[in-house]
Every structure is written in C-alpha cells, then in structure tokens.
C-alpha cells in the first residue's frame, strides 16, 4: 500500500536523510514543506528528483516527491497540505540553543505555534500518525541518563519550546485521539550535514579549512552522539509501531561522551583520511543555556519500538568524514 508522507523541514539534514531512504524504497508519496531558511532546493535535489508545487496545487499528485516552499506559521497552508496524508513527520523548527537565547519570541513562534498549526491540521484532516522531533533540551541540567519520566527543567528558550510542543502532542492524543509520538533526539551527525551548526559538522568543516576547533567550556561537557542512519530507523519505527500514541521516547545511543573525547576521535579520523595539518582545539567561555551533561536512557524505545542504536562513534565518524571529503572544496570556506 502506498503511504502518503508529509515532512516539514524536509530540505534539512534529517529530512533529506529520511526522504532519501523513502525514495530508495520506491513506493511512497512524499510532500516536503520548507521555507528554505536553512536547506535549499539544491540540497533536496541531491537526494531525489522532485516536483515543486505552488500554494494552490494539490498536495498529492503523481510525482514521488513534491516540494512546497512555505512557512509552518501559516495555518491555512497547514490545513491544505495535510489533506489526504497518512503520516506527518514534523522536523521544521528554529534549531539550537544560541538562536533561542538571542530571540526567544521567534523560537517560540516556530517551535510551539508552528507545531500547533500542524497538530490542528492533522486532527481536522484525519492524519493517522504525527511524529514530532524533540530533543534532550526540555530536561535541562539534571543527573543523567535522561529518561522520559524525569522532571523537566529547561534552561534555554529552545528547551522550553520543545517541552511545550511535547505537551501539545500529548494533549492532542488524549483530547482528540491523534496518534502523536514525540522523539527526543540526541546529538545527530552524519552524511548530508554540511549546513548543520552542531559540533561534529562544524568541527569537520573548520578542520578542513585549517581553523581551530572551538569548544565552549573546558570540553568536559557530555553529549549523546547518534548517527543519522540510526535516527532515521527510529523515525520509521515511530511511524509503523502500533499502540504508542501519546508517547515520548529518548532516541540516542545511551552512551555518554565528553566533547573532548569526541574531538580526539574526530581528529584521529581526519588525520587517517586526510593530509590534515596542525589543527587543534581551543576552549572558549561557556555559552548561556548549554547543559553540562546529557545522555539518554533508551530502554523505553527498545521495549516499545524494538529500537536501539547500532552504529558506534568510530564507524559513524569515519562515514561522516568520508562524505565530507568526497566534496571537500564545497565545504571549505
């Protein structure tokens, strides 16, 4: 049976990775909506052939992938584009802690109101499953590992917005029966991440440009780094598994890695695969809103979705560096 997907923010790193897998399978109909604030038409074109549609055109046509350039803050667009859709994967967001600290209102509009627009449209149009991309940020500074029942204390507007959106997902399930699933992503990395501003992609681009690797703080802060292929598998499980409506899942590796440890592994990987010169890390002041420790307990995802990460950091970094090196000139500023 053909499944009709709507992927918000589908020109971004995670969206394109998901689109590529779906297109490779050959039997899905996919509509991508994106405002091109980060991703581009050319980015989407790297992973698939697509047909660009206008705001008044039907969202389900003969093309395997359709692209609508629009903003998630427009509720009329949301109502129209969600008709005849089976699944919504809501990836569109104002991403990152620093941007939310700089402009909390903009962050709230995108991450809370934008999510409500698509929840409401999904409810009224009878969409079967709504998968929401969250993060570990709602938990804030707490004693890890982070699990789904931990009391949230976000320390950034980004974390607060993601927490609010998780709450609306839960409310739409319990009030209206919309099958929502919230996935709290770890720190995602991998191929197609050239425009991502998080640490691994940023460090690879800086290293290839011969620039120092800027660590905010002393490098002892920890993260849970998850390879993109594992994350896409988790999204697919969140779409397919029955009986998980209204649930939230930690999607990460359940392994705690300091930024310094990751940096050493990455530099070793780069030196093996390139003629890398004298690139070194430098420590800068800590950023407002960054948590000190962050890694996840993923046992709930294993129990209810039969999912766990399978790609270790050494393998994931090697594959990521290889992808960047295959088009090195494009990413070196």
Describe the structure.
- This protein has one domain (3-188, 226-255, 289-311): 3-Layer(aba) Sandwich (Rossmann fold).
- It is built from twelve helices and 14 strands.
- It has helices at residues 13-25, 41-45, 75-81, 97-102, 104-125, 157-176, 199-208, 228-240, 259-273, 299-305, 313-325, 328-331, and strands at 3-8, 28-34, 51-53, 65-69, 87-90, 129-135, 179-185, 187-189, 213-216, 222-223, 225-227, 247-251, 257-258, 281-284.
- The strands form four sheets. Strands 3-4-2-1-5-6-7-12 form an eight-stranded parallel β-sheet, sandwiched between helices. It has a two-stranded parallel sheet with strand order 8-11. A two-stranded parallel sheet has the order 9-14.
- Strand 6, helix 6 (157-176) and strand 7 (179-185) form a beta-alpha-beta unit.
- It is globular and about 55 Å long.
Keywords:
eight-stranded parallel β-sheet, alpha/beta, two-stranded parallel sheet, single chain, 333 residues, 14 strands, 12 helices, Rossmann fold
The helix content is 40-55%
CATH homologous superfamily heading: NAD(P)-binding Rossmann-like Domain
**Oligomeric form:** single chain
How does the helix and strand content classify structurally?
Answer: alpha/beta
Q: Compute the separation of the termini in Å.
A: 45 Å
Radius of gyration: 19 Å
- H and E string: EHEHEEHEHHEHEEHEEEHEEHEHHH
Number of helices: 12
Q: What is the strand arrangement across the widest sheet?
A: 3-4-2-1-5-6-7-12
């Amino acid at each position: 049976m053909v499944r009709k997907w709507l992927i918000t923010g589908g020109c971004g790193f995670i969206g394109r990775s998901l689109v590529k897998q779906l297109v490779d399978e050959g039997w899905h109909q996919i509509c991508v909506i994106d405002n091109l604030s980060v991703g581009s038409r050319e980015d989407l074109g790297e992973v698939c052939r697509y047909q660009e549609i206008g705001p008044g055109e039907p969202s389900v046509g003969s093309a395997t992938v359709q692209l609508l350039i629009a903003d998630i803050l427009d509720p009329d667009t949301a109502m129209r584009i969600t008709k005849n859709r089976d699944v919504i994967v809501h990836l569109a967001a104002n991403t990152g802690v620093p941007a939310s600290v700089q402009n909390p209102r903009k962050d709230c509009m995108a991450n809370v109101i934008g999510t409500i627009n698509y929840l409401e449209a999904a409810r009224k149009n009878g969409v079967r499953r709504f998968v929401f991309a969250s993060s570990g940020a709602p938990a804030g500074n707490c004693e890890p590992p982070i699990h789904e029942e931990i009391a949230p204390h976000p320390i950034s507007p980004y974390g607060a917005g993601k927490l609010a959106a998780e709450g609306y997902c839960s409310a739409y399930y319990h009030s209206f029966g919309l099958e929502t699933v919230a996935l709290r992503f770890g720190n995602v990395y991998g191929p197609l991440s050239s425009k991502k501003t998080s640490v691994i992609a940023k460090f690879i681009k800086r290293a290839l440009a011969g620039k120092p690797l800027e660590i905010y703080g002393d490098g002892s802060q920890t993260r849970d780094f998850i390879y993109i292929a594992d994350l896409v598998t988790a999204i697919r499980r969140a779409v397919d598994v029955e009986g998980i409506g209204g649930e939230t899942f930690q999607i990460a590796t359940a392994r705690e890695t300091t930024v310094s440890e990751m940096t050493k592994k990455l530099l070793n990987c780069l030196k093996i695969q390139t003629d890398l010169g004298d690139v070194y890390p430098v420590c800068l002041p800590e950023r407002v809103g960054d948590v000190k420790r962050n890694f996840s307990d993923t046992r709930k995802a294993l129990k209810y979705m039969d999912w766990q990460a399978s790609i270790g950091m050494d393998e994931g970094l090697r594959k990521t560096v290889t992808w960047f090196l295959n088009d090195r000139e494009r990413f070196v500023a």
